[in-house]
């Protein structure tokens, strides 16, 4: 883990102040604030937010390959999120939101194809 820099930083921060027990518990948890298990899902929410924002664009401009990848990635990582230790509910939630926002976008695209008859 980067030559032990993160644990040293965590220990220094914990020793620098008399933290509330709840905060100290979160800092020391297996999926706490000093682990990748905490931060990755928070950054992945940007993909979900971008996909939700794309719901405002016309259906003909939706990228079919992109939405297929977003949907499949969401389902694959949702399954993975249920199998790993430590469990992260945020990781599971972000991937489910990715999958379902991708399904919604795919539905919009296929509905556009069905209505216009354009299967480009």
From TrEMBL:
<dbReference type="Pfam" id="PF03650">
    <property type="entry name" value="MPC"/>
</dbReference>
<keyword id="KW-0812">Transmembrane</keyword>
<keyword id="KW-0999">Mitochondrion inner membrane</keyword>
<dbReference type="GO" id="GO:0005743">
    <property type="term" value="C:mitochondrial inner membrane"/>
</dbReference>
<comment type="similarity">
    <text>Belongs to the mitochondrial pyruvate carrier (MPC) (TC 2.A.105) family.</text>
</comment>
<protein>
    <recommendedName>
        <fullName>Mitochondrial pyruvate carrier</fullName>
    </recommendedName>
</protein>
<keyword id="KW-1133">Transmembrane helix</keyword>
<dbReference type="GO" id="GO:0006850">
    <property type="term" value="P:pyruvate import into mitochondria"/>
</dbReference>
<feature type="transmembrane region" description="Helical">
    <location>
        <begin position="84"/>
        <end position="104"/>
    </location>
</feature>
<keyword id="KW-0496">Mitochondrion</keyword>
<dbReference type="InterPro" id="IPR005336">
    <property type="entry name" value="MPC"/>
</dbReference>
<keyword id="KW-0813">Transport</keyword>
<keyword id="KW-0472">Membrane</keyword>
<comment type="function">
    <text>Mediates the uptake of pyruvate into mitochondria.</text>
</comment>
